[in-house]
Amino acid sequence: MFSDFLGHIMNVIRTIQFKDYIDILIVAYLIYHVLRFIKQTRAGHLLRGLIALFTLILVAQWMKLSAIGYLMTNVLQLSFITIIIVFQPELRSLLEKLGRINISNMLQFSKLSTSESERINLGINSICDCCTDLSNRGIGGLIVLEKTTRLGDVEATGTALNSELNAQMLVTIFFPNTPLHDGAVFIRDFKIVSAGCLLPLSQRLEISKALGTRHRAAVGLSEISDAVIIVVSEETGKISYAQNGEIHIGITPLELKNVLSDNFISDKSKEKTEVNN
Fold first, then answer.
1. What fold is seen in the domain 114-264?
2. pLDDT, tens only, 36-85
3. Which one of 116, 141, 193, 219 has the fewest CB atoms closer than 10 angstroms to its CB?
4. What are phi and psi of 240, to 5 degrees?
């Protein structure tokens, strides 16, 4: 019996062509990311609700409850429209992530010049020095580093500065009671573009209540972009960063430097810089 079953499985495998393997891998990849998307958003609760509706419809059909079956069927049809309306932010985030896929980066065709790499390294060091200073002084800070997703709408909410990036400038902006200290500093291409920027707050319920508005704002922007958002807590002095909808609490300045280097300097550029140094 088992040998027959095993022989049947082997026959099926032999009939599978190379394109079928590609098809299976793509479908598995899509299912994995859909399930991950459901787990990380409110869609999990919605999925349970849809399963409950399907169950009620099946029970109504089995028991021949025509009124309940008719009602549940129409509610289910309307629920698909509700999904688009209620989960517009999540769907937008999913589509933006698909649009951010960069083939050249995936294939490692692009790399930075040595001078550009050195300029970015100086900017990263300035940001880490600023966060260390803010942490030691107990001053809150919120820094947005733009990547491939253009955030002109966020930039426009602040005051234009167009300043060179250095630690002293950043600390001065976040110093208490200054006009721009409450908002976020917006950095593009390692230049301070604007300050006092307003960020969208995350609506996720699973975020710890112990985290303040800065942390929720950092997560909110990371949900709709690929930006790296750094937070320095005014209460605890802890340095954190948010990216891809997740926040990492209490990292060291060295860990922050590694995160920024991984995001803004290609591996080949880092190796070239280390050799030259």
1. YojJ-like (1 (3.40.1700)
2. 666 655 556 666 776 777 787 788 778 877 787 777 777 766 766 766 66
3. 116
4. -135, 165
Instruction: Please identify which residue in the block is written with the tokens 């919605």.
Output: 46
Which residues is 241 bridged to in the sheet?
230, 248
**CA 107/CA 66 separation, integer angstroms:** 57
What average pLDDT is seen over the chain? 79
Q: Is the pLDDT of residue 138 over 90?
A: yes
Dihedral sign, CA of 112, 113, 116, 120? positive
Tokens, residue 43: 């869609």
Alpha-helical (H) ranges within the chain are: 2-15, 18-40, 43-62, 66-86, 88-99, 103-106, 114-137, 152-155, 167-174, 213-223, 253-264, 267-276
Count of all residues that appear for the chain in the document: 277
The residue ranges of every structural domain in the chain are 2-101, 114-264
